[in-house]
Every structure is written in C-alpha cells, then in structure tokens.
Amino acid sequence: MTFDKLRNTPLLAKFRERLERMPVPEVEDSLWLRVLVQALVVVGIIATDVAAETQISFWAVPLSIVGAAWSWYSRRKPNIPVKFCIAIGMLGALAYFLSNLRDSLNDTRLILAELLIQLQVLHSFDLPRRKDLGYSMVIGLILLGVAATLSQTMAFAPLLLLFLAIALPVLVLDYRSRLGLLETVRRRSPTEMGEGGKKPKLILPFPLRRLSFLLLVVVGLGLTIFAFLPRVPGYQLRTFPVSSPIQFTDNLDPSNVNNPGYRGRKGKEGSGTGRGQNKEEGAGELDDTFYYGFNEKINQNLRGFLKPKVVLRVRSQAEGFWRVLAFDRYTGQGWEISRNKQAFSIDRPSWSYKFILPPAFTANRIQEVVQTYTVVSELPNLIPAMANAKDLYFPAQQVAVDTEGSIRGPGLIEGLTYTVISDVPYRDRTLLSKASTKYSKNIQKYYLQVPAGIKEKVRQRTEEILTNAQKVAKTNKPIVSAYEKALYIAQYLKQNPNYKLEKVPPFLKDKEDLVSAFLFGYQNSPPNQKITGGYADHFATVYTIMLRSIGIPARVVGGFAPGEFNPFTGLYVVKNTDAYLMTEVFFPKYGWFAFDPIPGHPLIPPSIEENQSFTAIEKLWKWIAGWLPSPVNNFLNNLFGGIIGWIFGAIVWFFALFNQGWTGLFTGLIVAICLTFLGWLGWNGWQYWRYHRWLKRLHPMEGIYQQMLRWLGEHGLRKHPAYTPFEYASASRQQYADERGEAIEEISQAYVRWRYGGESPNLSYLRRRLEVLRKSQLRKMGRRRTG
After folding, report:
1. CB distance 360 to 304 below 8 Å
2. For residue 587, is it left (φ>0), alpha (ψ between -120 and 50) or beta?
3. What is the per-residue pLDDT for 483?
4. Considering the domain boundaries, does residue 384 fall inside one?
5. If you average pLDDT over residues 676-690, what whole number do you get?
6. Of 241, 251, 277, nearest in space to 262 by CA
7. Is 537 exposed, middle or buried (0-12, 13-18, 19+ CB in 10 A)?
8. Per-residue confidence at 598, pLDDT binned at 50, 70, 90?
9. ∠ CA 424-425-427, rounded to 5°
10. Chain centroid to CA 269: how far?
C-alpha cells in the first residue's frame, strides 16, 4: 500500500479532519516575555550547577536556548512530529531517572533537579502559549529552590539576586498578557532610531525604575525576615542529608587511624596529599596541611604552622566544638590512646544509613542537637561530631568507636556529607560544683596517670595556685569542689603573664618533659633566659596534668572550633587552622565537660544555651559589627542592647508558651489574638494620622474635594482617572438625587473654578456642604438602629 493510499484511508482521513477542526490555541506573541522567561530558566539551571558543583549547564543551557528560539519561530504551527519526539525524550528521561534513583535514595534532590532540567530542555521546543511559558517559570523557581537547599557558599547569592531582578518584569509582562494588553509600541524619534551619529535607545515594555525600587524593597524585606526567623529546636522529619555510599574494598580496621599528615606508619606511606612531615617521636616539623593532633599517638615536640584551608562546612542547630578524638595516656612529650586496640566496629542495617552509637549516660539535663557536615577537603578517617553523639547517618557499611567516644570511619573524602545527632548536656554549674569526688577504679586507672618524675612538683605548684586563690579573693574559704578548682586553674593559666603563647617554643630534649618545661623553663632556653609557656595545645596538656596531679580525672580532647559562621548560608565554615586541643574533666553521674585554658579562647567552649531560636540574628549582628569601628560598635551595643534584649526576651517567652502543654497553647493563642488586634488598631491609627497629615499639606479647597472623593469611594462610587470632575459629579448625581447630590455638584463646581479659573472659594460654606455627606450617613445609621 502506497503512502498516498494510506493517507486516504477512512480512519486517517477522519483523524486528519478532526485535527483540522480543532481550535487553534492562542499563541503568546510577547518576545520580551519569552526572552525573560528563558533567562529565568537559565539562571535556575546555572544556580543548580553552582550549588551542586555539577556541569549540567554546559549542555542544558545551549539546548534550552535553541529550543526557545525554535518555539518562537514555530509558535503558530501544530508541530506534531516535534511533540512526538518530546514525548519519547521525556520517557527516556524518566527511565534514566529511575535507573539512578536506587543509588540516591538517601538524598534525591540532585537527581530530581536533573530530571526537571531534562524535561525543561525538551519542553522548551514547544512553547506556543502563555501557559507553557508559565510552566517554564515554575521550573526555574523550583530549580532555584533546589539550589538553595544544596548551596553551601555565597556563590548562590548573586544568582538569587539576578533571578529576582528578572522575575519582577516577568510577573509584570505575564499579568499584562493575562489581561490581553499588548506591548505598547510607539513611533521612535530619529535620535532613538540611531540617526545623527547617536546610538538607538532601548525601549523597555516595563517601568525599569519602579521595578528597581521594588527589587530593593523585596531584598530588604527578605533579609529582615531571614534575620528574625526563629530556628526551631528540632527537625520534624528524620531523613537527614547523607552523600552517596562510599565503596571500599578493604574491611574497616577499628584500631586504625589514618592521618595523611603522618608517613611511614606501620610500613605504609600516608595516602593523602599532605607533605607527611609529622613524626610520632622526637623533634620535627609540622605538616602544613593536616593537623598533627588527629592520630592515635601525637608528638607535641613538633614545630611549624598550618596553611589555612577550608576542610568542613557544618549546619548545626547550636554552635559547638566539633570533637574528633580524645587521649588518655600522657607520654611526656605528647599523648596516645592507651586502649586503641579495644576500639570496636558497628554495622548499620542494609535499609538505613543510621548507626546507633553507644550512649553516654548523664544525670544532667540534655538537648538534642542535629549537625550536618560536608567535607570540603580530605581529612583523617576520624568523624567530627558534637559531644555525646547518639545517632550517626554515614554512607558506609561500618564505623568504629573507641574507648574515648571517638568515631572512626573508612575515610573522609572531599564532597562527603553525613549527619550526627548528639544529646548535649546543659552545663549546670550548681550541680557540677556539688558532684562527688569518689571515682570508679576504671576512671582512676586511666585518667589520673602522671609520670612519677614530675608528679610531686606539679602537684605542689597546683596546690600553691589554689592556696593563693584565697589571698586573691581575700577570703578564708578554700576552693573545695572539683569543678571550681578546674575553673580557677584554667583561668590562672590564661591570665598568668609567666605562661605566654609562644609561636616557636624551644625544642624539648630527648628525656625532657613537656609539662615541666612549660611550668619551670625549657632546657633549650637561650643563655641567661628562661622560657616558659608554649603552643596553644601545650596549655591543654599542662592543664590536664595539673588537674590529674590533685586527683581530678581529666583527658585531652582534639577537635575543631566552630569556625566562621556565615549568616546568609547558615553554615559554619571550618578551616584546618581551627583544630586544637583542650581538656575534658570527669564528674561522677554527669560525665565529661570541656574546659579551655588557652589564652584568647573562651574558658567554656561554645555549646548549647537555654534558647537557640534567634541565634541567626545574633550571628548576623556579630558579622556586621566586625566591620564597624570599635567606637561605633560600642555605641550601638550600648544604645540598642537593652531594647533588643527586651524584644528578644519577649519573643522567646512567647514561643516558649507553645511548649507548655494545652495551657501554654491556649495562652499563646490568646496573646497572639490580642497582639493582632492591637496591631490592627495601630495600623488604622497610623493610616488615619497619615491621611490627615497629607490633608494639611494640601490647599483647603483641594482638601475638601479629596475628602469628598474618599467618602464617595468608601460608598462604592470611585472616580475613574479618565473622568473629569463634572463627569464624576454627573454620575454621582444619578445615585444621589437628594441634598447629597447637590452638595457633590457644588463642591465639584467650586473645585473646577478654583483649579482652572483661579477663583477664591467660599471655604466655610463648602465645609458645611461636606458635612451634609457625613451627617446623612450618620442619620442613615440611626434609622437602621431604630428600625
């Protein structure tokens, strides 16, 4: 059968006839709307690329632009073959999405964004109607939203502003298209056409100045809402960000700590990109990339500096110390984990990425804190987390936990994301000051160890410091509790001028003890000079041994400071230079609590507070204040400190009501209704004041006329801008045939004679005529009441 005969079969002929009878869809002819919608889509695709660090835009953006151009030139054609090809392409995109879905069930945002981009590229080849452009607008908005959830840097901010700048004229043009208003085209002058050697002017179909002002208003309002938006105390969903599974061929060795900064350990070279200079014993040079303190054994006789490098981005409900590992045995020139071989592995179920970690029991009040970490640069296989981690969402089959509560994984590679849930205890000074000093045998065995050669002289120096505390405080009452002793000794090391932070302290000799050298002088000090003090990490070591010498269990813990908080991304940016050591002290029943004896650091490390709901605005203010001169900063702090503190206190109190059961819920609702009513009264009062202030600035005749227009507008007879005063008065006379109509006509005539004829009106008479309108409304209301 030939093609012509096939076309003329009754079935196909009837189908072709039905297609021809179908109404032709109304096409969108606004070229500006099409161009700007396409720009929105391009920005959404690029934003997804930037946030996810992918390269989709290299093919998606050009194809999408080609498709949009094709749609413009073919907008009046049926394009049936193209529609069939688009349908086939969409099925292929769906098949590709389903094939990738199994490996990305832990985080489907990126593959869903890829599917949406593929569908948009196909969809761009068939955009005849305004509704089709509307789908593209929504796709661009969704892509920008996905990029916002994936973004961890400020690179997303310019794209967000660009999207807003394009979206505003798109909304204007879309609204005009819905109303059926065509783009206004006016005849260009010779100058605009480019004659006379001048460049032609670009005529835009939307008010650029007004939209620019509106953009500033939207951005300002958005930043204000973001700053004051409360941070809720917990996640409502238990699906946390985790990267794709890591494929490892070797089984996890629980006792192995792999720091790329060390080399030659157990006959193997470091696998990282660091220089591998860290030696586990003797004088040596620090690796300039990887922190020396993240290893099963550390040597504090190393000297050198780290080159700053971002290693982590952390999203956390509370600021904290990102704990990595702890040491229990002091070696004289460093620390080691004495029970490293006792580390044990934990398996996760095959259907979940959740590891349940051994609990840390405490009688103290705790708060759940969720943290999500993204590894920016390669790190040792030690997993940072806030203290007392209970749940770990990590993309590996096994992790390990050692006796000091440190978590180990197969490796922390660039781009890896994991989530930790910690039960962080509140630091109640009253309770901890009353803690018992009766320690278990296990605690005494591992956390009171001090080398015999230095134990007595360190104890004497520590006791001397505590005895002098009575003289400093001018009291006969000695410091009794372990907690208060720990506080005072840490503060003493911070403030004592004899123990300074040394950039490059002398190397220790082979048998020289670090604590002894720090407190009493280095043997390698220059002639006629005694150097005391040391590195920042040396302070933690000395502090720990001083506490142990007087019977207070303590250990050294290594980790990262919170880092620099970015108030716009909500992330803490952590560098390798943020790594340091501090001390954890044990209190029976309450567990381990950290103290920081390093000068310049807060004595109590950052942790949870009573309320974390509005820390975003606090961080934002600290970020802004960092750019201000000190006098200006101090003045603003003193000026607004009390006011802002009171406001925040009231807001915190209000939101706390909803956590106090049914009584608090109903109390909060009543307060919210009262505040809303007061706000409504205030808004109306402000509008009334503003209106009368505006009237006072007008000429009395203009004021009388405007009051008449307002009265008529409130009663359903608004003046159209095209009406003249006489036309408006004539229309109102048809509705008000009584004395009100006469008053309206007289005021209108007086206004025209004053405005265009320069006549002086009889203001007192006109004010009485205006009162006729107002009194008639009052009489009408009175008749309704009596009726």
Report:
1. no
2. beta
3. 94
4. no
5. 88
6. 277
7. buried
8. very high
9. 130
10. 39
Cα gap 762→651, rounded to integer Å: 55
**308: Cα separation from own chain's centroid:** 23
pLDDT value at residue 482: 93
- pLDDT tier at 540, thresholds 50, 70, 90: very high
Choice between 302 and 660, residue whose per-residue pLDDT is larger: 302
3-state secondary structure of 396: coil
Find the Cα–Cα–Cα–Cα dihedral 497, 498, 499, 503, rounded to 10°.
90
State whether 78 and 163 are in the same domain.
yes
Same domain, 96 and 177: yes
Question: What gap in Å lies between CA 478 and CA 402, rounded to an integer?
Answer: 38
What value does the mean pLDDT take over residues 186-211? 60
Task: Give the confidence band of 186 by pLDDT, cuts at 50, 70, 90.
Answer: very low
What angle in degrees, to the nearest 10, is found between the helix axes of 31-52 and 57-73?
A: 170
- For 106, the domain range is 25-183+205-228
Same domain, 35 and 177: yes
Tell whether 53 and 168 lie within a shared domain: yes
Task: Identify which of 593, 316, 282, 556 has the alpha carbon closest to the alpha carbon of residue 433.
Answer: 593
**How does pLDDT run across 120-150, given as a tens digit for each residue?**
999 889 888 888 888 889 999 999 888 888 8
Query: Using one digit for the tens of pLDDT, what is the confidence trace for 60-117?
Result: 999 999 998 988 888 888 787 888 888 898 898 888 888 887 766 666 788 888 899 9
More reliable by pLDDT, 691 or 587: 587
Q: Estimate to the nearest angstrom the gap between the alpha carbon of 91 and the chain centroid.
A: 36
Q: And the tokens for 725?
A: 């005063």
pLDDT score of 268 more than 60: no
Same structural domain, 776 and 648: no
Which residue bears the tokens 């941070």?
231
Q: Spell out the residues 6+ positions from residue 42 whose beta carbon is closer than 8 angstroms to its own.
A: 57, 61, 64, 65
CA distances from 777 to 706, 713, 771, 783 (A): 18, 14, 10, 10
Distances (CA, A) of 1 to 8, 12, 616: 11, 14, 75
Instruction: Enumerate residues 6+ apart whose C-beta is below 8 A from 475.
Output: none
Which among 179, 82, 185, 193 is positioned nearest to 128, based on CA atoms?
82
Q: Which of 497, 422, 423, 485 shows the shortest CA–CA distance to 459?
A: 485
Determine contact, residues 550/465, Cβ cutoff 8 Å.
no
Q: Is the pLDDT of residue 196 over 80?
A: no
192 occurs within a structural domain:
no
What pLDDT, on a 0 to 100 scale, did the predictor assign at position 756?
A: 83
Tell me how far apart the alpha carbons of residues 770 and 111 are, in angstroms, rounded to a whole number. Answer: 68
β-strand partners of 412: 379
Euclidean distance between CA atoms 48 and 141, whole angstroms:
11
Q: Which two tokens stand for residue 568?
A: 């716009």
- C-alpha distances (whole Å) from 349 to each of 107, 397, 407 are 18, 8, 18
